From TrEMBL, chain A:
Alphabetical list of SUPFAM superfamilies matching this protein: cAMP-binding domain-like, CBS-domain pair
Gene Ontology molecular function: [protein-PII] uridylyltransferase activity
Key words, A-Z: CBS domain
Cited InterPro entries: CBS_dom, CBS_dom_sf, cNMP-bd_dom, cNMP-bd_dom_sf, Diverse_CBS-Domain, DUF294_put_nucleoTrafse_sb-bd, GlnD_Uridyltrans_N, NT_sf
Organism per entry: Flavobacterium hydrocarbonoxydans
Domain CBS: 173-229, 237-296
Keyword Flavoprotein set for record: no
Lineage: Bacteria, Pseudomonadati, Bacteroidota, Flavobacteriia, Flavobacteriales
Name of this protein: CBS domain-containing protein
UniProtKB/TrEMBL annotation, chain B:
Protein role: DNA polymerase III is a complex, multichain enzyme responsible for most of the replicative synthesis in bacteria. The epsilon subunit contain the editing function and is a proofreading 3'-5' exonuclease.
Domain of life according to the entry: Bacteria
GO-annotated biological processes: DNA replication proofreading
Subunit and partners: DNA polymerase III contains a core (composed of alpha, epsilon and theta chains) that associates with a tau subunit. This core dimerizes to form the POLIII' complex. PolIII' associates with the gamma complex (composed of gamma, delta, delta', psi and chi chains) and with the beta chain to form the complete DNA polymerase III complex.
Keyword Nuclease annotated: yes
Any one Gene Ontology molecular-function term assigned to this protein's record: 3'-5' exonuclease activity
Descriptive protein name: 3'-5' exonuclease
Domain Exonuclease positions: 29-202
GO annotations of cellular component type: cytosol
Keywords: Exonuclease, Hydrolase, Nuclease
The keyword Transmembrane helix is assigned to this record: no
Gene3D superfamilies for the chain: Ribonuclease H-like superfamily/Ribonuclease H
Residues in coiled coil: none
Length: 639, 214
């Protein structure tokens, strides 16, 4: 029965091979027979050696990890539009690997009985299936049903677990070739390169590649003054073009570039100059494919044009983080680099959101990261906490300006969600009218928090006072910081409330020094490292640093280091706090990467004796610190 | 002890109405539905379309879905802008009685899920009464209500009184492509329900019974 949902399914499938080869009526018919399946994160779709299901699967939303239990290494990650679990159905054998939802996922289950006739009748579909298996023959996993159409997305291949084997993978190249004719002028070419954000253009004659012009050619021949900017491509291009077959592997491509000392390879249908060019492979593409290093990732980020393209880059950042942790690089350095990269992702989302707006911002503004992100302590995928402050505008433009920034913030929040930052459950996001205010409105708000010291006001100021500017005008944000210090000086009683707030975090250990674990809910019997260990340190650091009126250090570990400098008599304690904080953060990050979550809750039985001892050692420091602030700010007088 | 007994029985009786503790959410056959109507007046307005799908074990089988446009005399031009169902289009459709009977057969004794369930169920019940058919006795769940239960209880954040299906679709990143078609809305409701259950599970253990007790 044809209906609204089958339309919806068909509308999605038509964008992906092999379904794009089907006539739309056929696709409609196929879609009527599909089931839509929801899978929670980490739930198994099929296990290794399971008998086959009667359907194969297409990922509609989310991601599915294919892995072999033996090594427990992820062999392939299926994204939106990817097919999995088809080969065993066609080969009539059991599943040879496990499929598990890597995140919350919606799948389309397509009954093989319904699909098979199309695979047999439709030549394109048959070819697609054959090619997608055959293209993996060079691949060490050729015994595995890896269903990606190669060359499908550039640089979107996430989580490559086996680095050495990876070198033999077929290269991913850019299919969008930028070309021009032999009579195009150098000036025009420069314009095209700038517009398309690429470094090379292919000169073609009747679709056949006859030469190539790179940034370097323009520099050496035009900018140097050797040729006028009206020179035609023909004259200045490098020829003949060095061409290769699109089937080359990453290693082959690397060697080819080294051998000829060039940065671009032209890939043609059969590898000679006599066939159509199918793609261009740049050194950059290769670098991206080869490895994660911050410079490459930042570059890749700059080239993104859609929010969706940022998500795989974030996955690579997480890989980088894992690598750093494995190599035991100091936590201070790790968090600097990762925060920098995460900020770059967020900045890119903000830039793209600005482009989506029909006009430039009506006033100067700053995008503020709050909470852990503001403190540069957020390394994993967590909730977003953010706000906007914009400069004061005259009454006439007030509503208009407000409306603009709210709309803009809604774009950014949605974009951040797309790249993996969950919405803040308490709506502390810039798209919430309460967190998108002008400078004066914020001042009123902060004054209210500081003078009305209820529990909520303290909590809100905890979150807000750790802000840092992610994007935009830092002058406006600076004025806000100054205002906070001014008001705090005038209302010293507020410190007492901040301190009592800071002392309210639940204790990490019980009377017998055993770990206290959660009593209820999904995290029953697990240890909450965020609330019981990290937060007490963060909260105390904030109070102390505010009392010294130190501006613009928001990172907890750095705050303790600054405090050690300011109060030499307590420097030992503060340094040990700084150390403990880094150790705990590292601990949390490792746990989070291990379980692909925020790392907030830790199953104690999974820890080694040594790890438990390390954890407990930090608790002693926390206790001493809490004693110090409660005495200093004389909290007992209040409560 | 004997004194307590009547009380004990009293509670027991209440419980009989609920399900066996052992039934899991996964096993249960849910029918997620939405109606498009000529308006919001229970007495005068009529159902133009019923869309419903079966949700079981986290899976929606498209061949098992129900989408029926109903022939109606009453027609309100102003609501046509929302649902896009024109009168001519409806005329070629089954009669109300016919459609309702098919719907009852489809529904069976499944648990009904809808967004603002009271509205849809009342509209259907009024139609059933008019056609001399027995009214629905199925258990019902409401995603508008359940969603509120997923929100954190905090003074920092004001809950709205009403969360529209659009709000849920935005929060849960569900495409609003087929918004305001009965089956399209039923689909959004179904996915939202699954995500709500997931959120509730993060807070504490949830089974079918506890969903009705929230």
């Amino acid at each position: 029965m044809k209906n609204t949902i089958s339309h919806r399914v068909a509308d999605f499938l038509k964008n992906f091979p092999p379904f794009n080869f089907l006539h739309h009526l056929e696709l409609e018919k196929l879609s009527e027979q599909i089931s839509i399946i929801y899978k929670d994160k980490d739930s198994v779709i099929f296990a290794e050696n399971d008998a086959t299901h009667d359907s194969f699967y297409v990922v509609h939303k989310g991601a599915v990890a294919l892995k072999k239990n033996l090594k427990n290494a992820v062999l392939d990650m299926c994204d939106e539009g990817d097919i999995f679990g088809l080969r065993p159905l066609l080969a009539q054998e059991n599943y040879i690997m496990e499929a598990r939802a890597y995140e919350e996922t919606i799948l389309y289950a397509i009954p093989i009985a319904v699909f098979k006739p199309y695979a047999l009748e439709n030549r394109h579909i048959g070819n697609f299936l054959i090619e997608s298996y055959a293209s993996n023959t060079k691949n060490p996993y050729s015994d595995i049903h890896k269903n990606k159409l190669y060359g499908d997305f550039i640089g979107e291949e996430p989580s490559r677990s086996d680095q050495e084997l990876f070198d033999l993978q077929p290269v991913k190249y850019s299919k969008k070739i930028v070309t021009c004719g032999p009579s195009t002028t150098a000036k025009e070419i420069a314009k095209i390169l700038t517009k398309k954000k690429v470094g090379a253009i292919l000169i073609v004659d009747e679709m056949l590649p006859i030469g190539i012009i790179t940034d370097k050619d323009l520099r050496n021949k035009i900018v140097s003054g050797d040729y006028p900017i009206t020179t035609t491509a023909e004259t200045i291009m490098t020829k003949p073009v060095i061409t290769y077959s699109k089937k080359m592997t990453v290693t082959e491509a690397q060697m080819a570039m080294m051998k000829s000392n060039i940065s671009y390879l032209c890939l043609t249908k059969d590898g000679t100059v006599n066939t159509k060019a199918v793609g261009i492979l740049s050194k950059h593409d290769l670098m991206v494919a080869l490895g994660n290093n911050p410079a490459v990732l930042i570059k890749a980020l700059k080239r993104t044009t859609k929010v969706k393209e940022i998500k795989p880059i974030r996955a690579r950042i997480m890989q980088l983080l894992q690598g750093y942790l494995d190599q035991n690089i100091p936590m201070t350095l790790i968090s600097k680099i990762i925060t920098e990269l995460n900020d770059a992702c967020i900045t890119r989302v903000i830039e793209m959101s600005l482009e989506k707006m029909s006009s430039p911002p009506p006033a100067k503004f700053a995008w503020l990261a709050l909470g852990s992100q503001g403190r540069s302590e957020q390394m994993l995928h967590t909730d977003q906490d953010n706000a906007i402050v914009y400069e004061n505008v005259s009454e006439v433009f007030r509503d208009e300006t407000q409306a603009y920034f709210r709309k803009f913030a809604a774009h950014v929040n949605k974009g951040l969600f797309t790249i993996g930052y969950d919405y803040c459950p308490a709506e502390m996001m810039a798209s919430n009218p309460k967190w998108c205010l002008s400078l004066d409105e914020w001042k009123t708000q902060i004054e209210y928090w500081i003078t009305n010291h209820g529990k909520n006001e303290v909590l809100l100021s905890f979150i807000f006072f750790d802000f840092s500017v992610t994007y935009g005008d830092s002058e406006t944000a600076n004025q806000l910081s100054d205002f906070i210090f001014e008001k705090l000086k005038a209302n010293p009683i507020f410190y007492v409330h901040l301190v009592s707030g800071a002392l309210q975090s639940p204790s990490p250990t019980g009377f017998f020094r055993q770990f206290l674990v959660e009593q209820d809910g999904a995290n029953k019997d697990q240890f909450d490292i965020k609330r019981r260990a990290l937060m007490p340190l963060t909260d105390a650091a904030r109070v102390l640093i505010l009392s010294h009126s130190v501006k613009s250090i928001s990172n907890t570990a750095e705050r303790f280091e600054k405090l050690a400098e300011l109060e030499p008599q307590n420097s030992e304690l503060y340094l040990s706090c700084s150390y403990s904080f880094k150790a705990l953060l590292k601990f949390r990050t490792k746990q989070g990467l291990l379980h692909h979550d925020s790392g907030q809750f830790i199953a104690l039985e999974s820890l080694s004796k040594m790890e438990k001892i390390k954890l407990k050692r930090t608790f002693k420091t926390i206790k001493e610190l809490q004693e110090l602030i409660s005495v200093r700010f004389n909290v007992s007088n209040l409560v | 002890m004997s004194l307590l007994k009547p009380f004990f029985n009293f509670w027991k009786k209440e419980d009989d109405n609920l399900f066996d503790e052992n039934i899991s959410i996964e096993e249960t056959r849910f029918v997620v539905l939405d109606t498009e109507t000529t308006g919001f007046d229970y007495e005068n307005d009529r159902i133009l379309c019923i869309g419903a799908l079966v949700l079981q074990n986290g899976s929606i089988a498209i061949p098992e879905s129900f989408e029926m446009y109903i022939e109606q005399d009453h027609y309100d031009k102003s609501t046509a802008q929302i649902h896009g169902i024109l009168k001519d289009f409806i005329l070629k459709r089954p009669s109300e009685s016919e459609a309702l009977q098919q719907f009852l057969a489809f529904l069976g004794d499944s648990v009904i899920i809808a967004h603002h369930t009271v509205f849809d169920v009342t509209m259907i019940n009024k139609a059933l009464e008019r056609n001399g058919l027995p009214i629905l006795e199925n258990k019902t769940l409401d995603t508008a209500y359940l969603y509120k239960k997923t929100l954190i209880e905090s003074h920092l954040f004001e809950r709205k009184d009403h969360y529209s299906l659009d709000d849920l679709a935005d929060k849960f990143d569900i495409s609003k492509k087929d918004r305001h078609t009965a089956l399209g809305d039923a689909y959004i409701t179904a996915i939202a329900f699954l995500k709500i259950v997931k959120k509730l599970k993060e807070k504490k253990e949830v089974n079918l019974n506890s969903l009705f007790k929230l």
